[in-house]
Amino acid sequence: MNGSLHLPLLRIPAANGARASRPPGSVLRLLAAACLWLGFFTLHAPASVSTTMNEGNHELGIEFPNGVQTRYAFHPVRLTAVNGGSRPVAWQVRIREQVYNQDGLSLNPSGHVERIVVEPGRTVERNLLVAIGRYEEQSRWSRLQVVVTTPQGDTRNWSPSSRSSSSSGRVTSPALLTNEAADALRDAPHVTEDFHGRLDPNAAARDWRGFSAFSTLVLRPEDWHEMSPSVRTAVGDWARMGGHLQFIGGMPRDAPAPDVPGSPRRGLGGVHPPPDGDGNRPRMRDLPAVAAADANHTPSFAAMRLGLHTIQPWLGERGKDLLTDRFVIWPMVAVLVVFFIMITPVNLFVLAPSRRRHLLFRTIPAISLAACVLLALAVALGDGVGGRGERFVWIESRPGAENREFITQWQASRCGALARTAFTVPDAAYIAPISPPGSTVSLRVAGDRLEAGGGWFTSRANQTHFLQAARPGRGRIEWQPGGGAPHAVATFDFPLRDVYALGEDGTWWHAASMKQGERTELEPVDAEVALARIEEITEKYPHSEGIHAMARRPGHYIAFTDSPSAIESLRSIRWSDTGVVTGLLATP
């Protein structure tokens, strides 16, 4: 592929031996130019979508490094403002998605609003994450709209793209590649196909959530070295969260390390070396990362594609209350009946009879106000205040060089009367609805926290969510081998139970419980017994196949807890937690 598209001219003989007519030369040249244009932009699509707005000596650049995708994710946006004047100026940028479907429902209608103040002679760069894209499987048309208010107060609009997701069912593993990596593959997907994108290594996201729209990332060693250290860390974190990183043309020495030497697995995802015969331009479909992503979808992709099927087995009997509308109706019916009795017969014949009809101006407002108070009390007593929910939390602890905890969480809740539905997630987290939200929602990435509002939680309704977060953490299990049975010390601030550890020599060890700071002796256990017990406990957990794979890593452990460190959302919900903790056995 060299950026051009060659089409042979076909000579079609005319009927009855007549001389074939030829189209004018200008038409042929126009067709050829169109073919060349289409071939160039299809085979060599730009690595990012960008525009520049000028106003006098001032300039604002807007760039989407991964292109514009229709899949729900946190998409990176880079803003670069230049002030060539002598006074401070301010730009305001609003990024929002316009969605048209059968419900007319948009995930994030309020969008992201960013204000940039630039001092004279200075350049300010902002790297944003904006939550946009579809959240459920249905055909619709969407358009991303960028509204810019210039320093002079003028308004300018820019639409990076518009596309339909009607063919999204054919796509299984959204892929992100650089242009050079795409050229090195025989059947690399075009960016005109749903969900695939092109990456500019110099403008890549510095946060793992900036890659959340994709299951596979294909890079050459040169692409990896072009990335800044913070971007490389983000790619490594993204792989731990379920992404599959594929190298072609060589393996960088400083590539993210897998959990076990000789295996591509890294957390929930993987880092895959170049396939055999890499010099012969391999096919995209034959890459190990693509096969792994197709076989085991990332947790976020599975959560939104499978919907409630992801968590129903885990909830079991509890799901009947959390996922089914079972609200108490009779208190509200009783209030309405009493209100009808008071407002008509009692009011007309007792409180304000015919000789005192003027009292109706007092009794009707008083009865109506009392009915409103009683109705609110009936809702509060019948459905409760706040809500209750179940959370399953999976923590992957990586002590040592990373010193981070990678958390994957599924949650289901049922709300009663809510005084407030907006909430703040105090982590640099990813959140997505498993089932469609009760109404339109808003979501803003504000540094190391999320600000959410709208229908994420709705009064007298059920809701299910999927969350992921990477946070600093030093929780670990310190492995202390001895002459006989090894000892271990847990530093987590919550108790553990059913702790299973797999030594480097393939021996399984078990401890019934472990508490913070206590030295615990482990007992040997048969491998079949350990794996059977782990499978029994995790059988109905979401993404259980990933947990089983984690448990089989030499030099690692798996433990269970009833009080894990969860990702917090709406605090008025009374949560009941269960959790799994996996990670590397640390040596003191």
Provide an overview of this structure.
The structure is a single chain. This protein has 588 residues and is an alpha+beta fold. 23% of the residues lie in helices and 32% in strands. The chain is built from twelve helices and 30 strands. The protein has a nine-stranded mixed sheet. Helix 9 packs antiparallel against helix 10 (360-383) and helix 11 runs antiparallel to helix 12 (544-551).
What descriptive keywords fit this protein?
nine-stranded mixed β-sheet; 5 domains; Immunoglobulin-like; 12 helices; 588 residues; 23% helix
| Strand proportion | 25-35%
DSSP helix count? Answer: 12
Taking strands numbered 1, 2, ... along the chain, how are they ordered across the largest sheet?
Answer: 19-22-17-16-30-29-25-26-28
Outline: globular
Number of folding domains? Answer: 5
User: Could you list the spans in which at least 5 consecutive residues all have pLDDT below 50?
Assistant: 1-46, 162-171
Summary, kept brief:
With about 600 residues, the protein is of the alpha+beta class. Helices cover about 25% and strands about 30% of the residues. It folds into 5 domains: about 1-10 and about 25-45; about 50-170, Sandwich (Immunoglobulin-like); about 170-295; about 330-385; about 385-588, no CATH class.
Topology (elements, then pairings):
Elements: H1 25-43, E1 49-55, E2 58-64, E3 73-83, E4 89-100, E5 112-118, E6 123-132, E7 141-149, E8 155-158, E9 162-164, E10 175-177, H2 179-183, E11 197-198, E12 216-219, H3 221-226, H4 229-240, E13 244-247, E14 265-266, E15 269-272, H5 288-295, H6 299-306, H7 312-315, H8 318-322, H9 330-351, H10 360-383, E16 387-398, E17 404-415, E18 423-425, E19 429-433, E20 441-446, E21 449-454, E22 462-472, E23 477-480, E24 487-490, E25 496-502, E26 508-514, E27 519-521, E28 523-525, H11 527-538, H12 544-551, E29 556-561, E30 573-584
Parallel strand pairs: 10-11, 10-12, 12-13, 13-15, 16-30
Antiparallel strand pairs: 1-2, 2-3, 3-6, 4-5, 4-7, 7-8, 7-9, 14-15, 16-17, 17-22, 18-21, 19-22, 20-21, 23-24, 24-27, 25-26, 25-29, 26-28, 29-30
